[in-house]
Amino acid sequence: MINYSNNTVTFYDGLIVLQLQGFNNMNNCACIYRTVCVPGFSEMLVPVRLPKHYKGAEAILEPLPNNLTQAFVGGCLTAVKDGIGVIRMLNFRPHPITLKRNALVASVIFPSSVSSINPFENSSEQQGKNTNSEKPSVEELEKFVTEYKLDLCAKLTPEQRYDS
Questions:
Q1: Are 139 and 69 in contact (CB under 8 A)?
Q2: Per-residue confidence at 9, pLDDT binned at 50, 70, 90?
Q3: In 3-state terms, what secondary structure has residue 160?
Q4: Do residues 109 and 115 make contact, with C-beta atoms less than 8 angstroms apart?
Q5: What b-and-e string marks burial along 120-143, b requiring 16 or more CB atoms within 10 Å of the CB?
Q6: Over the stretch 29-48, which tens digit does the pLDDT of each residue have?
Q7: What does the pLDDT average to over 5-17?
Q8: Which residues does 156 contact at the CB level (< 8 Å), separation at least 6?
Q9: Beta-carbon neighbour count of residue 43 at 10 Å?
Q10: Which pTM value belongs to this model?
Q11: Residues 108 and 50: beta-carbon distance below 8 Å
């Protein structure tokens, strides 16, 4: 969700919150470090060169909105060594493609600009938790039925309705 009032963008229901910034110039873009051939229907970690002024140990790389390569670019967090990081790219075509050296593929987001990160719970971790509350009492259910004017079988007693 993009919030223009505070210039932030939120991903995964608030898991990641980033500041909105413009990354359309060469000073904030990562480009392919050397020419790479990606086989058909495969993905690959491609080395990218970060801007010379960037001296951090890690960087967040996000695909450019106007991606001119023939492959999909995945956003990632990468370690930076000597100005080189890696980014995941997917060739969705049946034939191999060549990614040319110096092609712009991603914008660089500095980790210090991340406003907040919330922990992510796997579905396997959530299965152990009981999210159901206790069953309501017969009186609460009857109050609900009358309040919302539900048409239930008149032959059933309140206890029988509660059991089913």
A1: no
A2: confident
A3: helix
A4: no
A5: eeeeeeeeeeeeeeeeeeeeeeee
A6: 899 999 999 999 999 999 99
A7: 74
A8: 164
A9: 15
A10: 0.56
A11: yes
**Counting Cβ atoms within 10 Å, is residue 59 exposed (0-12), middle (13-18) or buried (19+)?**
buried
- The pLDDT tens digits of the residues spanning 135-147 come to 778 888 888 888 8
pLDDT on residue 132: 61
**Bridging pattern class, strands 84-91 and 42-49:** antiparallel
List of domains in the chain: 22-113 (2.70.40.10), 136-164 (no CATH)
- Tokens 């059933």 -> residue: 156
Cβ-contact 98, 36 below 8 angstroms = yes
- In this model, does residue 58 exceed pLDDT 80? yes
Q: Over 90-123, what HEC string results?
A: EECCCCCEEECCCCEEEEEECHHHEEEECCCCCH
The answer to whether the beta carbons of residues 75 and 64 sit under 8 Å apart is: no
Which two structure tokens, joined as six digits, stand for 62?
């996000």
Give the pLDDT confidence of 65-106 residue by residue, as tens digits.
777 788 999 989 999 999 999 999 999 999 999 999 988 899
The DSSP output letter for 27 is G
Tell me, what amino acid is at 33? Y
